[in-house]
Amino acid sequence: MDPLSLKKLNALRRERRAAILLTDLEDGRDRVIREGDMVAGALGEAVARAFRSGKSGVVEIDGRNFFLNVHLPEPRLVVIGAVHISQALAPMAKIAGFDLTIIDPRTAFATPERFPGVALHAEWPDEALARQPLDAYTALAALTHDPKIDDPALRAAFEAECFYIGALGSRKTHAKRIDRLTEAGVSPAALERIDAPIGLDIGAATPAEIAVAVLGAVIAALRSRGPGDRSVSA
């Protein structure tokens, strides 16, 4: 590997940015492609597929073989609200390979007894997220129903271009949420990114079923994203 490519790749990995080390197997030359870089033609299509799947492999383009070594940040799921849904979601998210964090300033809910082995922050979202910022490989699920807790986290998710942003609540509750965030200056394009009512439409009724719906929506968003899909400003 070219030392400059290694230096660039390591820097991107420290920044939690996705990259592919593309090696031409005919001549051994390599280069680093960041997610969002323009790559034309069939090679660009192969690169986009690799970023979505996270799988490395060899592709043949115009009679030449290339190895795409994919480096994706570990996906994170930040849950706002230490509620019953979160209790069901926590073990599921870990099994699915997500680095899970739960944030809730309500100390009666955010306890180690209710969330054993989970990264738990019993503080306001703006405080917790200042230390561990959201990014494009983070999903955010707002589950408290409390605007004082959920809304600041949602605004942070817009600014960070999280790959998934979901919020619990009925359509009526969501309409009020949209009104509040609009008054706070959030753009219509950003507001359209909120998955609400949260999760896949599977008729979920219990906290565990809603957790399944949420995790399914997060996985679908992670695997369907592509370069340029998340660029929405608040």
From TrEMBL:
Family annotation (InterPro entries): MoCofactor_Util/Proc, XdhC_Rossmann_dom
Stretches assigned to the XdhC Rossmann domain: 77-216
PANTHER family xref list: ALDEHYDE OXIDOREDUCTASE MOLYBDENUM COFACTOR ASSEMBLY PROTEIN, MOLYBDENUM COFACTOR INSERTION CHAPERONE PAOD
Protein name per UniProt: XdhC family protein
